[in-house]
Design a protein that fits this description.
The chain is α/β, with parallel strands linked by helices. It has helices at residues 14-25, 32-42, 44-53, 60-63, 66-84, 95-98, 114-125, 129-151, 172-186, 192-212, 240-253; strands spanning 3-7, 28-30, 88-91, 105-111, 163-166, 223-226, 230-237, 258-265. β6 (223-226) and β7 (230-237) form a beta hairpin. α5 (66-84) packs antiparallel against α10 (192-212) and α7 (114-125) crosses α8 (129-151).
Length: 266
């Protein structure tokens, strides 16, 4: 089946539309609550980080911080996990960029005129116009900064998406029904190779997240990928203990795949 990735602006109806599409098609809905729940299951501190840093632009130091790298690895692992199951609606969090090369992923950008969004914020949050404008500016800027810093992409570039919907012109119901009909045929774009490649990515992302969030490991240059035959580990470790611990985690999660360990000592 297909996967829907929704990129959005603040208050353009993306949560409502995404949820409605997922409900009608019986898809998983991957939103902030889903991400928080998955990260909290790994550990309380990861759930707390998700609440504090969700789609916020990281500072220079945060980007290279060990804890922040683990946080991003967990989010990416969550996205790949749900995408690999098929039948998922994924809201933001770089999913359009992580899943850009998969034909079964429909990448949609929702937008609306600023004036429409201001009115929605004023009505929903019961705030004045100045406050509404500030909320929109802050949220849009944070999301764009997050994507630029983590993935080196511009959130609004048209080349990143398959379709655009203006929710200032079309109602949420109209956009929902359009997406439901499109998705019914979108899964035909998938190939056995693209499905398997996505499953391989989900597996390697899970391994990477486990390693980067392990309290005894510090490997800032870690790479985990599938080369078509085996799972490959690359990066610098500080001791034999780290070397063997990384390899142990990878073997536990490898699912029977061959493992090629190219870790080196720093």
């Amino acid at each position: 089946m297909a996967i829907l990735s929704i990129s959005r602006e603040y208050q353009n109806g993306a949560p409502e539309i995404g949820r409605a599409v997922a409900d009608q098609l019986g898809y998983d809905f991957v939103d902030n609550h889903c991400v928080y729940t998955n990260l909290k299951a790994v550990g309380e501190k990861w759930g707390k980080l998700a609440e504090e840093l969700d789609e916020e632009r990281p500072s220079f130091w945060e980007k290279y911080d060990r804890e922040y790298q683990g946080f991003i690895a967990l989010i990416e692992s969550t996205i790949y996990e749900y995408a690999a199951k098929d039948q998922a609606v994924i809201l933001g969090r770089g999913s359009a960029f992580l899943l850009h090369d998969f034909p079964q992923v429909l990448k949609v950008r929702l937008y609306a005129p600023l004036e429409v969004r201001i009115e929605r914020v004023m009505l929903k949050d019961e705030v004045d116009r100045i406050t509404a404008e500030g909320l929109i500016e802050k949220t849009d800027k944070s999301r764009a900064g997050y994507i630029q810093t983590i993935y080196g992409k511009h959130l609004q570039d048209i080349e990143n998406y398959d379709l655009f919907f203006n929710t200032g012109i079309q109602t949420y119901d109209q956009v929902t029904q359009n997406l439901v009909e499109i998705l019914k045929g979108w899964d035909q774009r998938a190939t056995p190779e693209s499905r398997q490649r996505l499953k391989d990515l989900a597996l390697t992302a899970k391994i990477k997240a486990r390693i980067l969030t392990h309290p005894e490991l510090v490997i800032p240059t870690l790479e985990v990928f599938h080369d078509g035959q085996s799972i490959v580990l690359k990066g610098g470790v500080h001791s034999p203990k780290e070397y063997h611990l990384v390899e142990e985690i990878a073997r536990e999660e490898s699912g029977g795949y061959l493992l090629r360990n190219e870790l080196h000592y720093r």
